[in-house]
Write a structure and sequence with these properties.
Helix content is 63%, strand content 6%. It is mainly alpha-helical. A hairpin with a 2-residue loop joins strand 9 (431-435) and strand 10. Helix 1 (33-58) crosses helix 16 and helix 6 (146-158) packs parallel to helix 19 (413-427). The longest helix has 28 residues, at 108-135. The radius of gyration is 22 Å and the shape is globular.
């Protein structure tokens, strides 16, 4: 990558059409603009499900989250000088903390506490990024050696398996299976541009198939998150919780009612953050996971592109923190670099940041156009199940690639024990209830176990090896 490269200076890769087999489109390169727009659209679709769903889970406005994710992504690309292709979508690491903040009280004031706590966490994350940048990447190598970074990348991918298994796949298992198989075939049989947008084509096919099935086979009976809530006696109940759960009911696979009622243009609802110390303390542990997550993502992109991106880790962490501060300052959701979009890059081998600028602009337009946002959000869960099982799996395998290329010694128990435990905790996802109001789970818990477990055991073995 040329020194002094600016976001507006992408070089055309070859003839701008289909790169020869084995070649990649570098971050400072692009295909023709129509093809770049297609890849950008694929990035939007890849991030949209989680970026839209996680704010809903946290009680925040999903349209605002989508719009601000575009703003945060542009800020990120500017801060990293266009050298780290990545999309900033909604972070799942804050979900547990937000649940704890809202426990027992859920009001407009609580919304302010949630976004205020997220804003402070974002500021802490940005400060950590500055420390990493100015103290040098050796800090990262000491804290995140290849065995740890590979594990973090792996648990980020595999730790999202429960989303596929529990949320998406059961909504329509056959559509999920057909969509997954279709993406398999397109990726393998079409080596050119068609193969590179296999995920987008799979989503289109799955959406169309679901629409056809609604009109030929009739409604499907399955569970939709947050709908048809029932208690132990089968009575309708609110809100969703341990004794009030979503239950199966007949429904169309494609529901366009939200599209019909949505406006063509409009600003999403916003609110100012409010600051409460107890709320802030509940979400601060997410910063640990985000540092590891950003580090893992940057290293994963570096592995895929063959570029040394380690000197930019501090900038990336800082940029993510800035993105979270900006989004939460208007009532939006926390951000993080997105595994889903890294999965798209792994599948397409197109790392052009031009596509990410396109994706960011599309996301901003989606946020300003509720009708288009509602259309993408209407993508059936079964279709998302067929696509995300591929994307999450490819992310997990990038972790193994880091291990192999760095020749990590798995005969050493210091490497195998904490890494294996952390991955299982993430995949579970296992929950550690520290108190009634605070718990760690899934990716956050697995990351902490990997980091602390590895370094603790390493120090013990070093001390034991010293002569008395």
């Amino acid at each position: 990558m040329a020194e002094g490269w600016k976001p507006a200076g992408w070089k055309l890769h070859g003839d701008g059409r289909t790169p020869p087999p084995g070649e990649v489109v570098a971050p400072d390169e692009r295909l023709t603009w129509p093809r770049t727009a297609g890849i950008g659209a694929q990035h939007v679709v890849a991030m949209f499900g989680a970026t839209f769903v996680f704010p809903l889970v946290m009680g925040l406005d999903p349209n605002l989250a989508v719009m601000m994710s575009g703003v945060a992504t542009i800020l990120f690309l500017l801060i990293v000088q266009g050298k780290v292709p990545s999309y900033l979508g909604t972070s799942a690491s804050f979900v547990g903390g937000v649940f704890a903040i809202r426990a027992g009280v859920d009001s407009a004031q609580t919304d302010g506490w949630v976004t205020g706590a997220i804003l402070v966490a974002g500021a802490v994350l940005a400060l950590c990024g500055l420390l990493i940048h100015f103290l040098g990447q050796r800090i990262i190598h000491q804290v995140f050696p290849p065995v740890v970074t590979g594990a973090v990348v792996m648990l980020i991918g595999f730790g999202l398996a429960f989303v596929v298994a529990d949320t998406y796949w059961p909504q329509d298992q056959w559509v999920a299976l057909i969509t997954m198989t279709f993406v398999f075939l397109v990726m393998v049989l079409f080596r050119g541009f068609i193969g590179r947008i296999a995920v987008l084509l799979g989503l289109v096919l799955g959406f169309a198939l679901s629409w056809v099935l609604d009109r030929t086979a009739g409604p499907i009976t399955s569970v939709l998150p947050g709908q048809n809530l029932r208690g132990a006696a089968g009575q309708a109940c609110q809100p969703e919780g341990t004794y009030c759960v979503a239950t199966a009911f007949p429904h169309d696979r494609v529901n366009l009612s939200a599209v019909e009622s949505a406006d063509w243009f409009g600003l999403p609802s916003m609110h100012a953050p409010d600051f409460k110390l107890s709320a802030i303390l509940l979400v601060l542990p997410a910063v640990i996971a985000l540092i590891a997550e950003n580090t893992g993502h940057v290293k994963a992109v570096g592995e895929m592109t063959g570029a040394d991106l380690d000197p930019l880790i501090g900038r990336a962490v800082f940029a993510d923190g800035v993105g979270t501060v900006v989004t939460s300052s208007v009532g939006g959701a926390p951000t993080t670099t997105y595994a889903e979009n890294i999965g798209v890059m792994a599948a397409t081998r197109i790392y052009s940041t031009a596509a990410y600028y396109v994706a960011a602009l599309i996301a901003i337009l989606f946020g300003l156009c509720p009708k288009f946002g509602a259309l993408v959000a209407a993508t059936p869960g079964g279709v998302l199940g067929g696509v995300t099982v591929i994307l999450y799996g490819m992310i997990g395998l990038l972790g193994a690639k880091i291990w192999i290329e760095n020749r990590v010694d798995f005969a050493d128990a210091v490497n195998t024990v904490p890494i294996g435990a952390g991955i299982i905790l993430a995949i579970g996802p296992v929950v550690l209830e520290i108190s009634d109001d605070f718990k760690l789970e899934g990716i956050a818990l697995g990351t902490i176990v990997v980091l602390t477990g590895y370094h603790l055991l390493r120090q013990i073995t070093v001390r034991m090896a010293r002569p008395a």
